[in-house]
Write a sequence for this structure.
């Protein structure tokens, strides 16, 4: 009852910010406890992630991955479907990108990008379609099936790489390098067009703009179109959706197709944009981070955008921290986990006191 | 001699006139909502005290405070003259208070005996408690007409008997004060009568009973005194003998109300819907509808009466296309599919069947959605409301919603407010506006005034009659017999998935319908 009494602005800004702050406070205590200076650590992280265009480049590169996977989780959650399978769907998206880039001779990167987008989205969507179909028609729980499909995807990719895509004689289970015509423009090239200097090292590329545009597109789809209306109605109340003549099975399948497609599109960034070939475990857990990003972003596309940048910061800042201090890499994972814990699981710990504060302010 | 001493003794206990319950200045707020405001109330020992009020008047909050579910912000509770703190329900039980909730708190797959001793076991081994409880139950059954077989599982008992188990639970824990929250909502009239006999018997044994209800007839029948609540306050307390149903209704609403619906005689036209051999077997293999057949004409209100759970809800869902069934149906002479892909909410609306569902919170509305999104629910494909094939045309729908809110007197008339921000009556008006203004040939209505305040009930009834007079057929399903009697032109009574009988509304009464509702063939 009282949770609904928080003004909307506080719900979307104050609550997550305070949660992150609390997570950082505890992290600081941990860092202090292992004998390092929390202040120095914060400085290193912020400096490493935002202090240079090099740092920004990496932060945004990671953030791009998280935007794709975060959007995938958020869209599914609008229909109250918990898509845990972003990892596998993104992996399959990588396969789609690799096949499109390797086997179709592209004259120019723009066309290659278009083709690769279709390939990535189609493969990711296909991988999500099967759990979606099973949920819609057979009642198999989507959480279970999508988790299992992550393992199937990993094994399937392993098989594809070792048995088909690996160049003959190569010891490395990875595909050959994509042709040059499929190389995506890096951010420094794009910014260079406007005369803005940017570090050439980080792999951040045009996918960042695609992910950003998708945040907006997903918002528009959810809150401005008939389809989005049906998705949200189904998510808020299945009986009401049925009453309105919205087919639960149809919406479940459509939402999972969209969600899987978004997760699959992540391959544009990591496979096509960075590695330019398909390697084993290219996704590196970004599919799971997407769950945390969506959770923290309140399953809203704009929230996902901001949360993705925060997690990009944690990734890049954390890497810097591990490089320059005695703080072990594991502690970075702990800090990330604390952020997830506080923004997701312990949400009410912050929300209820804030709700009380607002209640006091209103009556008193 | 004995008589006089008896009387003297009784006077002596009565002389200090220690009330069973005395509440002084109880206040309770939820956020900015003042649910109870400075409530003082005195319930005399050995009486039945009624508390009436509209939904949201604060009755349940007050009783929850008394039973230790909520803590009052201020105020004091005196039980039998002693100031009592009730921090939890255990303390309430210790103070001799028993509560029978509207929704029973029984373990379905436990026996009656096991439910009775649940939470009151004497030891880790259940044997001795069982033995003791069996004896006590036998005694209680003999004393108060509270017969229930102690070894039957709860799930095999009728609703009326389940309620008796709730009462037995309280008495087993030696409750002196029994609070009943809307006890007759799920009972047939004859079961309700039996309940009242039990309550009177308990009263004669010196127990104190608080009866929370919104049914004025029950208050007039069974209580000794009555308190009326409105907006969190007690607006009046009267000896029942000195008041009338009309006065109580006015006190509840704060203005004059029509308890009867004014309507002209129906002018039935062509047949709109005909059903034949409608049969529904649910997932558990239970036959919910057994070969139902009837027809309904334009310009009439057909009421379906029955105790909740006798197949009315299923009938409504089948007709609304939300559930598949066997049998045949014709709409305006054309076959209406009862199963297959053409049996869904969208197809029914296209066939000009509108539906006001029984459960507006779960089905009729998407509570977090804005009012305007809710007036489009089910009509989001209809170009009349949403001209754009892809987008949701916000501006057009908002304008349409604002006009509907105006015509249906929805307060506040704000299309941007989420549905959950409206009161029950106003939520129902939103649903009704959506369904009635579509201009259906057949309107299916389930429990139109459940959880709706009296002021809105009048309005809703008038709108349904207007729709009838405009030539639509209305199928009304309600567990409120009074509503069926005053609104319907023709009445079918359902019992155990069957139609027990058909009566014209102006040629029957609650007693006759009540017998049919209880499954008596010859009423």
């Amino acid at each position: 009852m009282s949770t609904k009494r928080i003004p909307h602005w506080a719900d979307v800004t104050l609550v997550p910010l305070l949660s992150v702050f609390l997570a950082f406070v505890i992290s600081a205590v941990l860092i202090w406890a292992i004998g390092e200076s929390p202040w120095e650590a914060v400085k290193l992280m912020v400096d490493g992630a935002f202090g240079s265009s090099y740092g920004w480049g990496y932060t945004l590169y990671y953030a791009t991955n998280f935007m794709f996977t975060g959007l995938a989780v958020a869209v599914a959650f609008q229909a109250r479907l918990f898509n845990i399978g972003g990892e596998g769907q993104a992996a399959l998206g990588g396969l789609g990108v690799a096949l499109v880039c390797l086997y179709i001779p592209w004259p120019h990167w723009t066309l290659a990008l278009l083709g690769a987008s279709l390939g990535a989205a189609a493969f990711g969507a296909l991988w999500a379609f099967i759990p979606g179909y099973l949920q819609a028609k057979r009642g198999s729980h989507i959480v279970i099936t999508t988790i299992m499909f992550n393992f199937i995807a990993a094994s399937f990719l392993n098989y594809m790489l070792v048995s088909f895509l690996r160049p003959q004689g190569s010891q490395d289970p990875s595909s050959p390098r994509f042709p040059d015509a499929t190389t995506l423009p890096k951010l420094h090239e794009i910014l260079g067009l406007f005369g803005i200097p940017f570090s050439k090292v980080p792999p951040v590329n045009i996918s960042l703009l695609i992910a950003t545009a998708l945040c907006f597109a997903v918002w528009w789809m959810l809150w401005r179109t008939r389809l989005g209306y049906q998705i949200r109605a189904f998510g808020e109340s299945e009986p009401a959706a049925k009453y309105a003549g919205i087919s639960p099975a149809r919406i479940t399948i459509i939402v999972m197709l969209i969600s899987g497609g978004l997760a699959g599109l992540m391959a544009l960034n990591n496979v096509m944009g960075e590695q330019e070939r398909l390697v084993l475990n290219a996704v590196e857990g970004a599919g799971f981070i997407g769950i945390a990003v969506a959770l923290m972003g309140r399953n809203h596309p704009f929230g996902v955008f901001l949360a993705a940048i925060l997690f990009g910061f944690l990734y890049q800042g954390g890497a810097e921290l591990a490089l320059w201090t005695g703080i072990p890499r594991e502690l970075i994972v702990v800090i990330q986990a604390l952020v997830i814990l506080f923004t997701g699981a312990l949400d009410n710990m912050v929300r209820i006191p804030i709700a009380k504060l607002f209640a006091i302010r209103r009556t008193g | 001699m004995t008589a006089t001493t008896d009387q003297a003794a009784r006077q002596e206990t009565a002389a200090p006139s220690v009330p069973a319950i005395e509440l002084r200045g109880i206040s309770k707020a939820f956020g900015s909502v003042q649910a109870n405001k400075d409530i003082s109330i005195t319930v005399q020992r050995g009486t039945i005290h009624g508390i009436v009020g509209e939904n949201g008047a604060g009755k349940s909050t007050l009783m929850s405070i008394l039973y230790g579910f909520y803590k009052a912000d201020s105020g004091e509770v005196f039980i039998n003259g002693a100031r009592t703190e009730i921090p939890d329900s255990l303390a309430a039980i210790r103070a001799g208070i028993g509560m029978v909730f509207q929704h029973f708190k029984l373990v379905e797959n436990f026996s009656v005996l096991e439910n009775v001793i649940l939470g009151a076991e004497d030891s880790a081994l259940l044997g001795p408690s069982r033995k003791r409880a069996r004896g006590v139950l036998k005694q209680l059954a003999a004393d108060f007409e509270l017969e229930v077989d102690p070894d039957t599982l709860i799930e095999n008992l009728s609703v009326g008997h389940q309620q008796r188990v709730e009462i037995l639970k309280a008495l087993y824990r030696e409750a002196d004060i029994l609070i009943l929250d809307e006890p007759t909502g799920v009972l047939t009239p004859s079961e309700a009568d039996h309940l009242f006999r039990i309550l009177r018997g308990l009263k004669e044994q010196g127990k104190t009973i608080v009866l929370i209800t919104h049914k004025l007839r029950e208050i007039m029948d069974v209580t000794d005194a009555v308190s009326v609540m409105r907006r969190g306050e007690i607006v009046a307390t009267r000896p029942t003998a000195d008041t009338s149903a009309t006065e109580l209704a006015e006190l509840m609403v704060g203005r004059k109300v029509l308890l009867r619906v004014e309507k002209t005689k129906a002018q039935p036209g062509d047949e709109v819907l005909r059903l034949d051999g409608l049969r529904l077997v649910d997932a558990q293999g239970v036959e919910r509808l057994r070969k139902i057949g009837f027809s309904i004409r334009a310009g009439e209100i057909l009421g379906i009466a029955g105790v909740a759970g006798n197949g009315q809800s299923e009938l409504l869902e089948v007709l609304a296309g939300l559930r598949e069934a066997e049998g045949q149906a014709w709409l305006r002479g054309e076959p209406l599919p009862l199963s297959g892909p053409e049996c869904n909410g969208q197809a029914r609306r296209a066939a000009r069947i509108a539906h006001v569902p029984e459960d507006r919170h779960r089905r009729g509305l998407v509570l977090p959605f804005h009012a305007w999104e809710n007036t489009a629910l089910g009509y989001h494909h209809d170009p009349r409301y949403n001209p754009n094939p892809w987008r949701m045309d916000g501006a057009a729908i908002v304008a349409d919603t604002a006009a509907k809110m105006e015509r249906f007197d929805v307060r506040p008339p704000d299309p941007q407010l989420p549905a959950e921000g409206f009161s029950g009556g106003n939520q129902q008006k939103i649903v009704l506006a959506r369904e009635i203004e579509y201009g259906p040939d057949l309107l299916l209505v389930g429990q139109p005034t459940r959880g709706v305040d009296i002021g809105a009930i009048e309005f809703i009834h008038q709108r349904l009659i207007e729709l009838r007079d405009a030539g639509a057929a209305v199928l009304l399903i309600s567990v409120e017999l009074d509503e069926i009697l005053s609104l319907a032109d023709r009445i079918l009574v359902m019992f155990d998935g069957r139609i027990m009988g058909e009566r014209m509304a102006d040629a029957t009464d609650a007693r006759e319908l009540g017998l049919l509702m209880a499954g008596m063939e010859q009423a």
In short: Confidence is low (pLDDT under 50) at residues 1-15 of chain B. Residues 271-517 of chain B form a domain with the Rossmann fold fold (CATH 3.40.50.300). The longest helix of chain B spans residues 127-144.
